């Protein structure tokens, strides 16, 4: 199987490099890496409609892309790499992608873009909060060891979103969840510059999450891996 590994944190993110190395250790698979050359966090499903995308070969089936995570998947799926992917793995993201975060996440967008082409997509995120040690190795181990199981959950018009607690060990089995509802208490700070322009900065505030016991947030808050099957288009209810 041909596996494409990408992310939104950029080619030098530790989570991407460790995950790609681990997947290359699995037999029967060829791993390609195509990731943004710089951090593209929060770009969601953005694609580059004007101008070319610049790819740079770093050897070992690894390339950087001047575009977004969705661009990376499009290039690979449409034949821009030596082989088209049978699976897209996005991550491991440095930070949570829970619930409403999926609207903004470039990590989730890469897996969603794969699903738009009928390719299984799995997004991995490590739920780091504040300062302290980051347990990349444990998250990579889970991602590698459960990859086949996660791919088996994939269905047409969905992608699999996985949030892993930042912990050396997890309590209990992974939990199938639904995305949580998160409210962002951000504010805008502005000032008037001497050139007559007004500059505004978005200041991140606390995030308030609904306490739904079946949600991804509820699972990771109890130190369990949260797995959500996410539809790539609105579900019409009769």
Give the strand content.
Answer: 25-35%
Cα separation of the termini: 39 Å
Name of the CATH class: Alpha Beta
What would CATH call the architecture? Answer: 3-Layer(aba) Sandwich
Low-confidence stretches: none
Main pleated-sheet profile: 9 strands, mixed
How many domain units? 1
Please state the CA-atom Rg, rounded to the nearest Å: 18 Å
Q: Strand order across the biggest sheet?
A: 3-4-2-1-5-6-7-13-8
| CATH homologous superfamily heading | Survival protein SurE-like phosphatase/nucleotidase
Helix content: 10-25%
The outline comes out as: globular
How many strand units? 13
H/E element sequence: EHEEEHEHEHHEEEEEEHE
What's the pLDDT, averaged over the residues? Answer: 94
Under CATH, the topology is which?
Stationary-phase Survival Protein Sure Homolog, Chain: A
Number of helical elements: 6
- Content-based structural category: alpha/beta
